[in-house]
Amino acid sequence: MDCSKIQEMMSLYIDDQLSKEERKLFEEHIASCEQCKEEFDFLQTMINNVNDINEEKELPTDFHKNLMVKIDSTNLTDIQAENRINRLNRFTKYYTAVAAVFVIVLVFGFIGKTNINRITDDKLQYDVNTESIKEDSMDKDIRDEATKEAAPVKQIATSDHDQEAAPKEEFGSKFLKDDPVAKNENKSDETAATEDDLGTFEFQEAENGERISESANRSEKSEKPDLNKENIEPDNGIQGITKDDNADLKDEKSNKMDKNIKDETTKETTPKEEFGSKSFKNDPGAKNENESDEATTTEDDLDTFEFQAAENGDGISEDANGSEENSENPALSKENIEPDNGIQGITKDDKADLIDDEPNNMDKDNKQLDKGEQIDTEFSESKSNNSPTVTFDSQVEITTTESEPESNKSNNEWNTEWIIIIGIIIILIIPLIYIKIQKNKLNR
Amino acid sequence: MIALDYITKEKRFNERRYNLKMLHDMEKTIIKKAKKGDKDAFEKLIIKYEKRVYNIAYQMFGNEHDANDMAQEVFIKIYKSLDKFNFKSSFSTWIHRITVNTCIDEYRKKKKNNKVESMDESMEQQDGVIHKQFVDKGLTPEEKVIKNENILFIRESINELKEEHKMIIILRDIKGYSYDDIADILGISIGTVKSRISRARLSLKKIIIEKKEQNKNAYV
Q: Are B59 and A53 inside 8 Å of each other by CB?
């Protein structure tokens, strides 16, 4: 056994606190280990000596007397009162600490809550605004459907709706493209329905600037604006590439800016832009042969669809017009149309009928100018229209009417909650006052 | 015979238990009376503990004067806090606990102020200087001298222990309390009592060895 363990056991062995087995082990070790035996002997004698110290001292003769005198002089009731006061003091200490923490949490919690309410109210208001805008656009679309008026033109009027207008113009281009296919309007609609993969595609058909806003408007709302945005940007970039071989970056940027700067609400319009771009793609096949050829070769990918992105609304319309003339199978659905155009482009390349295309381009340019003028006029007309401004006013009205009662409500809530807090604090203070009264009584 | 022995043993055990219970019940009623403010009851209650408390205080402080003051203070404390006694432990244990705690507290205070007197110091009193001596009866004068020297030496050594160790040595080795009683008085487990006693003894041994070596050097 280890000597250090034996040292620990020595004290217990002397006091007979070891078990039988431990005792045996201890005795065996002591018998064998001289050093341990020496130490054990020393400890034993030391303890014996200490035991000898114990001498029973007799009490001093006046001990009891003095003690009883002292005890007589101490009044138990006083002591009990003292004890009570001590207890009360201890209680008040804990109570005040807990109450203080409670009040602090209450007050700060309330302040925090009111702040959060304010923030959320602001957010709600913001949401209400945006929703109202959406609703307005919905209403307009419905109206447009009903009236078959040039819905985009009207929407352009308000700053918010400008963006919507641009895509619609692009749509217009598409429609223009489709217009030649006027016979197969129904067909094109059906194909649009099949394009649900991209989600955005529903056609607005219009003849010569008149646009029938159909389900496309609905699709605008259903789609996520972010995705649309993302789509928009690449479209423009690609557009720049396809359209201009020299690729004026400034133009691209300007296009991007035009489209991106627009408010969140305008994101709805992005699908339309895509449409426009598609129409473009189709158009450029006719317009810029070389460029369109490049693009059309890769058209199998959806990316390439987007590639031939829309130019500015005017350009689109022009292109659309151009495509009307050039497109061999305008009646086909978009999906069909695009590849067809691609093929068309390829075939054109193969044939290399540059001569034929050039005049087409020329025609396009001429038509572009015409259309641009038309659109400009439409814009001006739409601006003169009161309908968008009316909708805007209605939004404002909504927000104002909603915000005022809310503020009143919140004020009322605020006041009542503060009253409750003050009441709680008073209730918490009452026991402290009671304790003080009790203490004063005890002190007397 | 064995059966008879067993029966008598059990009888005695039962009697003892009954007596203890009776004593305990009597003590309980007296305590209840004392709690209500009956000073006679309190006097009855403490009279049998006075000597024990005084002796523990004496061992702790090493002089009659401090032991007297300490014992008085302990009993006044007991009187004041009697209504806090809840019969969970025995009254004896409770008194011992108060004694030990007040002694240790006071000892600590005095140690800080260097007011602890040693057993063999000279005391200045009104009627002159007195040199403290420990009287032991039944020994030859030579033996007395040797024993007194030995006792003094050990007392000095014990005084150098820290207060917890000193108290446990007093309770166990001087006053001879059982491990269980010490555990109850100090409010610690038996395991802790065992280890604390062991450590206290070993440190006392160390002090004694050191002192002996110092003395050797002094004499040489």
A: yes
Structure tokens at A97: 């600490």
A64 vs B: CB within 8 A? yes
Residue A403 pLDDT exceeds 60: no
Neighboring chain B residues of A43 at a CB cutoff of 8 Å: 201-202, 205
**Average pLDDT rounded to a whole number, residues B14-43:** 83
B147-154 long-range contacts, CB within 8 A, separation 24+: B147/A52, B150/A49, B150/A52, B151/A49, B151/A52, B151/A53, B152/B119, B152/B120, B153/B208, B153/B211, B154/A46, B154/A49, B154/A50, B154/A53, B154/B208
The chain A residue lying nearest B190, using CA atoms, is A17
Residue A174, pLDDT > 90, answer no
B75 touches chain A (CB under 8 A): yes
Report yes or no: B129 and B86 within 8 Å, Cβ to Cβ.
no
Q: Which of A224-233, A279-288, B14-23 shows the highest mean pLDDT?
A: B14-23
Rounded to an integer, what distance in angstroms lies between the CA atom of residue A256 and that of residue A311? Answer: 10
CA distances from B55 to A60, A65, B116, B121 (A): 11, 18, 16, 19
Q: Which two tokens stand for residue A192?
A: 């649009």
Q: In the predicted model, is pLDDT for residue A351 greater than 90? A: no
- Is A49 within 8 Å of B136 when comparing Cβ atoms? no
Q: With contacts defined as CB-CB under 8 Å, which chain A residues touch B75? A: 67, 71
Q: What is the pTM of this model?
A: 0.46
User: Which region among A240-249, B63-72, B148-157 has the lowest average model confidence (pLDDT)?
Assistant: A240-249
